[in-house]
Amino acid sequence: MKYIVIIWLSTLPFLSIGQKSWDLKRCITYGLKHNANIQIASLEMRKREADYKMSREARLPDLYGYADMRSDYGRSIDGKTNQLSNTHNYSSNGSISTSIVLFEGFSRTNEIAYNRYNVLQGYDEKRHIENQTVSTIIKAYYQVLMASQMKVMAQKQKGISSKLHADMQQFVKVGRESKVKEQKLYAQYLSDQSKYVKAATQEQIARNQLHQILSLDQSITVDDETSKNRLFTLDSIVSPSSNLADLSSCMHQIEMDKKYLKMVKGKKFPTLTFGAYYATNYYYSNKEGVKNDPFIEQINNNQSQQLYLKLSIPIYDKGRRRRNVKRAKIQLSMDQTLYKEKERVTRQIINDTWEQLKSDRERYNAAQALYKHSILELERVQKEMKVGMVNPQDVALVKQQFAESWVDMMQAKYQVDIQQILLKYYQTGDWSFIIK
Questions:
Q1: By the 8 A CB rule, do 133 and 37 touch?
Q2: For the chain, which has fewer Cβ within 10 Å, the N-terminal or C-terminal residue?
Q3: Segment 133-185, tens digit of pLDDT
Q4: What does the pLDDT read at residue 2?
C-alpha cells in the first residue's frame, strides 16, 4: 500500500499546466485586466460620463462671435467722364451674441439627473460583465482542478492494476495461480490504461478552456492552494446585497425612468430665454474724382445692440407630449416589475445554492468515509494477493469503489468551495473577498 500513498502525495499539491503557478486570485485578477468585454464596457462608461458633463455644461450661457474683413481694389470707367478711375473699397463686420434659458419646466435639471443615473447604470453594467467573467473563471479553474484529480486517480488505478498484474505473473510462473486470472488482471490493466488516456485528454481540454477564458498565450500551472486554504465557511443562509450589479442596475434604471417622466412632463411649460446681441460694421471707399458719397456716410461705423426675452409657449403638438408621458409611465412600471422579479429570482438562487451547499457537505462527508473504507479494501486485496487468494472480480470491484469514492469526494469538495464563493458574492455584491 505504500506505493499508492507515495503516488498520491506526489501528485496532490499542483496541477501541471506549465511552469508558472497561479491560484484562483491571480487567475481572476489577470482575467479582469485583459478581458475585451470589460475594456469595451470601460469605454462605454467614458461615453456616458461625457454625456453627463455635456448636460451639466448646457446650463451655462452660450456665447457666439463673428467677424470678417474685406478689401477690394479695382479700375473702372466713369460713366460721367468716360475716364478710367481707380477704386479701393474696404469693409469690416463684427458681432457677438449670448443667450441663456431661464426656465423650461425643469427639463434641463431632470436631464442632468437622468444622465447621472445613466453613468451609475453604466458602472453597474460593467460590474455585471466583470461578475460574469469572474464566475466563468471560477468554474473553469475548478474544472481544471477536478480534471487533474481525475487524471491522478486514473494514473493510480493504472499503477495498482500494473502492480497486481505483475504479482500475478509471478504466481503463474511458480504455479500458484491460473493463467486465466492473470489474463483477467491484464484486461483490467488495459482498461485502466484507456481510462487514463481519456482523463489526460479531458484535463488538456479543461486547461485549454481556461487559457482561452484568460486570453493566455503562455502555459501556466494552476495550484490547489485556494481550495486547500478556504477563505471562509458559511454557517447560515445569506441575504442578497443591494450592491449586486443586476439589482443595482435595475434600481438606477427606475430612477432614470422617473427623471425621464419629469422631463417629458416639463415640455408642457413655457420656455423663457434671455439674450443679448451686439454688432458693428465699417465701410470705406476711395474713388478717384469722388469727394463725398451719401451712401458711404450712411453705413460708415454703423452699430446695433439688443437685449431680449423670448417666451415660447407650447399650444398644440398633435398629442406628442401626452403620448410620451404615457409611454414613460408604462416604461417605469415595467422596470419596477422587472426589479421585483429579479430580486425574487436572486433570492431563489440563494436558497437553491444554500440547499446545494448543505447537500454537497453531506456528500463530501459520506464520500470521505467511503474513500477511507476503500483504502482498507485495497489493503485487503494486497494481503490476499500475497497468499494467492485474490479474485479478479473482487479486485475490479474494489478499484472501482476506490476511484468512484475519491472522485465523488473531490467533486463534493470543489462544489462546496464554489457554492460558498457564490453565496459570499450574493451577500457582499462583489468579489473583493477573493482578489484582495
A1: yes
A2: C
A3: 999 999 999 999 899 888 988 888 888 888 878 878 887 887 777 788 788 88
A4: 39
Kind plus residue range of the DSSP H or E element containing 115: helix 107-173
For residues 247 and 129, the answer to whether their CB atoms sit within 8 Å is no
CB–CB of 98/61 below 8 Å? yes
* Cα 249 versus chain centre, distance: 13
Q: How many CB atoms lie within 10 A of CB 337?
A: 10
Task: Write out the DSSP string of 218-279.
Answer: S-EEEESHHHHS-S----S--PPPTT-HHHHHHHHHHHHHHHHHHHHHGGGS-EEEEEEEEE
Tell me the domains of the chain and their CATH numbers.
Answer: 2-62+110-271+320-435 (1.20.1600.10)
Nearest to 310 by CA among 278, 277, 274: 274
The pLDDT value given to residue 99? 92
What secondary structure does DSSP assign to 117-176, as a single string? HHHHHHHHHHHHHHHHHHHHHHHHHHHHHHHHHHHHHHHHHHHHHHHHHHHHHHHHHTTS
Q: For helices 24-34 and 179-214, what crossing angle results, to 10°?
A: 40
Residue 97: enclosing H or E segment and its boundaries? strand 84-103
* One-letter identity of residue 233: T
Of 63, 57, 46, residue with least CA distance to 112: 57
Strand ranges for 261-376 from DSSP E = 271-287, 302-312
CB under 8 Å to 99, separation ≥6 — which residues? Answer: 61, 62, 273, 274, 275, 276
3-state helix, strand, coil in the chain (%, to 5): 65, 15, 15
Residue type, 321: R
Closest CA to 231 of 23, 417, 13, 356: 417
